[in-house]
Amino acid sequence: MRLSLARAELALRQHPRVLSGAALTLLLGSAVTAFGVAPLTPIDTTPVSTRIITEAMAVPDLTPQSLALEAYTLALHRNDVTRAGDTADSLLARLGISDLEAAAFLRRDRTAQRILTGRTGKRVQATSVAGPSGQLQRLVVRGPALDSARALTHFSRVTLTREAGGFSIQEEDVALGVEHRSGAGTIQSSLFAAADQAGLPDSVTIQMAEIFGSDIDFRRELRKGDTFAVVYESLSADGEPLTWGVNTGRVLSARFVNDGHTLDAVWFQDGDQRGGYYSADGKSKARVFLASPLAFSRVSSGFSMRFHPILKQWRAHLGVDYAAPTGTPVRSVGDGTVEFAGTQNGYGNVVIVRHGGEHSTVYAHLSRIGVRAGQKVAQGDTLGGVGSTGWATGPHLHFEFKQGGRQVDPIKVARSSEAVTLGSAALARFRDLASSAQDHLVGALASAGAVAQME
Ligand SMILES: [Zn+2]
Residue 449: what pLDDT? Predict the structure, then answer.
């Protein structure tokens, strides 16, 4: 027989004289705590005020109640996530369930088999009978949408239920919950440190750095006192955070005040056109060239320069050096054709990409090369990995941007490269969106105490 906590509670509430409501809550509350692992709740940035109330309470004789409790079977709830190499047995063991029938079903049923195959990190919620039998009653598994085209809007929910003669199983795609959240901060040491303090997920910080990547070189130009605010979508599955990689939705709008200059970006999708980020005046943030050949990440942004040039003539070299761990992906800053991919003396493993016009880019000291001469590449395509081949004493990327054979500053080229401007009809729609987005950002900055930094 299975009895949920709710029924146990009901049974106890029928004897109010024996047990006060407070003690009941206490008793049931501690039963839940003892047996269950509390589900993770989404990060809530609203301040919570807590008040502790202490009151004297006569402690009744609890013996009849504990006896009464023992007469009922409590349902246990446990949570876990699937891991690489999981089997039906290892998963059930982690959930504290020993149930041969359930294990056999998980191995045999084709829908159930999908729980343990494909993407790991699916959230598993098990309900089982307390006590020696430990029988599985219900298993709910939430993971990536079955239809991968809906990965950002849906999740899959598999529900396995014990029935009279065995188990029933149901699998469906369900819409993700979408919530708008905001965060703001002031740079003291690094972007990630400030974003951590603001409680922003890494994926939001990285999106922000990419959105403003053609305006600000986040590795070289951040100033102490720079401020930012961001409004983003936060996704949830049945009210729980996603555990399988798509942790956060899209950044909807962002503001960055760098060295006194205010930059805004607002996500805008006009009808069925491809969406993108636009500045407050309706200019696309996308550029012909990216400012940096390395994607912004927690690891590469905090990596210090631990090398020095080996040869004197190398010291006088032109270009930009990015220190980063060996293997960090190196991406093409623009569309083009691979002109050279191979080894050259001081450069070590090097890739040279020719872009339209007179532009070419050089990526040197690579640990590996992932492209061939003559190959077409698109902006953002991986060319190879950071290394220390050639004249380098430590892993870093040596990057050159040439225009008509002369060296130019990559961030300057990126900033001046052409941007798409919205047409007048779209611009009118965009302006409405942008002004409400800006109100949001100002509110976020104000609540973070960063308003004094604004223009
Ligand atoms: Zn260099």
Answer: 62
